[in-house]
Amino acid sequence: MQVQAPTADKSSSSPPASSLSVLMTRDRWFEVGRIVLTGLIALLYWREMVPLEVLWFAVAVGLYPLVKTGVTALIHERKVGTEIFVTIATLVAVLGGETVAGAVLMVIILIAEFIADLNTDRARASIKSLIGSVPQVALVRANGSERSVAIAEVNIGDMVLVRAGEKIPVDGHVRGGNASVNQAPITGESVPQDKTAGDLVFAGTIVESGALDIQTDKIGVDTTFSRIIALVENAESQQAPVQKLADKVASWLIPVVFVFLIVVYLVTRDVRTIVTLMIFMSPAELGLATPLVMIAAIARAARNGILIKGGLYLESLAKVDTVVFDKTGTLTANKPEVVRIQSHNAAFSEAQLLRLAAAADRRSAHPLAKAVVAHAERTQIVVPEPEKYEQLQGRGVIATIESQVVLVGNSALLRESGVALTIAAESGGQTPVHVAVDGQFVGVIFIADTLRPGAREALASLKQSGIKRIVMLTGDNAATAKAVSDELGIDDVRADLMPEDKVTAIAELQKQGHHVAMVGDGINDAPALARADVGIAMGGGGTQAALEAADIVLMTDDLSKIAGARAIARRAYRTVQENLFVGVGVVHVLGITAALMGWIGPIEAAVIHLGPDVLVFVNSVKLLRVRIPGV
Ligand SMILES: Nc1ncnc2c1ncn2[C@@H]1O[C@H](COP(=O)(O)OP(=O)(O)OP(=O)(O)O)[C@@H](O)[C@H]1O
Ligand SMILES: [Zn+2]
């Protein structure tokens, strides 16, 4: 899906960040001056208009910053970078009598580095502007009047008014009005959503028609939108293993290169060849080959409603061969409903049973608990407050209500509390929630949940994309689990699991050599999400714990996005390899060959050398637009 970049932002007046004028900082102008000065003096010397000493001076001016950054990198990171390389190449040329060649070479390299640096910054800026921005002012309604307020001065709870054509400045919920909102900047979904009272809205999304009164819940850096931007910005710091590999290669390559150069010099005694060779042996693009790809891929995913927290996870996602799913809230729609109540004790009517169960479940965040409470409210039962309440992971709740001890949960909960189950309440695809009062089993509430729309197709496309194994892990009972898995065509199912059993199951799969992705909603699977090679959380209905524990978040809860994310990840991985092998490897091998054969000199080499830089850059940024099947 190709998403339109958000339309012009009327309420912010800052210029687009990608414009050249913003990138040309004072330091950059200074750099331009230095390059021009060195180039000019080299030209004058060549025309025999200035003495050699002046050229020496120019070379020193040109090399100064290179030496500075090069030596700093050497001392602090123990890394021989391009800077040291260029310095040595230039010095070798100048000391070897090839003074003009040396100076020109240095100038060309300085220009190349300058352009590469500028372009990388520009790519970053344009990636950010693709995602969009948040308005800088909000129209706040207070005491019957409205006034424009800088976004930094909006408070949580403030009522913000947003009209057609404007962007929403805060995260909040609708208190009045109707509107059709384009949420593409957050979810990647370009079909506008209708919003009315009670609905959640996000900063950065656009009101296409209508108007909304929004009560502010989150502002500034706390908004979902800001978190997305921060992720894209920080993506570089979460280095992918392939990037560390590139760094490692660069560090052992350099001594090898020096030995090789010395050997060549001893054989040919030709300074020009050495200088030419040095240009093609610089490890510069090795450093460029991955980070730009990672930023581009993460930005591409973000535009499709997939949050990826770093390049690291892109690489692991590309390698995944096993996907593990949680059932409740992930494969099911997370809209559980009570379908039947069965009393097994004549002293309790169905309404009484529901009343006690709802009271016990009142404080629980579990989807089943919410279904019980919602059903009680719908049947207009007044639900009392529990005097005591405890949620037992993977079991249910124990509560004290009107001096009675009430258990609500699965059969294990009752068994472990010493309650005898008079019947085995198994019922196809429905989850039985058992209720016991003061040690007596009193009845069962059956809860049904529908499958998440598109779940079947999403699993099929994952299999098609090369996933070998799909597993379902659930805390629910085996019968319900089987009903769901049969419908979805999953054959590896494990039911009645405690949260820690899910972690063990994943560890086992990993021990068998699988790369495991875990998809969950986080009610009971945050530890499993953290344990898997890649944790993927459902963002829409997902809990905070899952969002924190997960490496990838699906903003729309759309399972088909998993295959989409994987397609982006694999494409990015391939792009990195192309960059390394074609952009860096092939071009350099050809260049080295040409230099050894004496076909090219240092200046041609410096010009040709711009090729891989450009190639790597274009190839990486392409990831933002190229068609990726399934995305
Ligand atoms: N608050 C609750 N109210 C009623 N029953 C509960 C509650 N919490 C847990 N249970 C029972 O314990 C079982 C296991 O719960 P758990 O949260 O581990 O898994 P789940 O939500 O059923 O499934 P999944 O692991 O697929 O998310 C549930 O199926 C339910 O029967
Ligand atoms: Zn779940």
TrEMBL record:
Recorded family membership: Belongs to the cation transport ATPase (P-type) (TC 3.A.3) family. Type IB subfamily.
Domain P-type ATPase A: 135-233
Taxonomy of the source species: Bacteria, Pseudomonadati, Pseudomonadota, Betaproteobacteria, Burkholderiales
Short name of one Pfam family: Hydrolase
Catalytic activity: Zn(2+)(in) + ATP + H2O = Zn(2+)(out) + ADP + phosphate + H(+)
Enzyme Commission number(s): 7.2.2.12
PROSITE patterns in UniProt: ATPASE_E1_E2
Provenance organism: Polaromonas aquatica
Ion transport listed as a keyword: no
InterPro entries in UniProt: ATPase_P-typ_cyto_dom_N, ATPase_P-typ_P_site, ATPase_P-typ_TM_dom_sf, ATPase_P-typ_transduc_dom_A_sf, ATPase_P-type_domA, Cation_Transport_ATPase_IB, HAD-like_sf, HAD_sf
Name recorded for this polypeptide: P-type Zn(2+) transporter
This protein's UniProt keywords: ATP-binding, Cell membrane, Membrane, Metal-binding, Nucleotide-binding, Translocase, Transmembrane, Transmembrane helix
Signal peptide from the UniProt entry: none
PANTHER family, alphabetized: CADMIUM/ZINC-TRANSPORTING ATPASE HMA2-RELATED, CADMIUM_ZINC-TRANSPORTING ATPASE HMA4-RELATED
Spans traversing the lipid bilayer: 29-47, 54-76, 88-116, 249-268, 274-299, 580-600
Cellular compartment(s): Cell membrane; Membrane
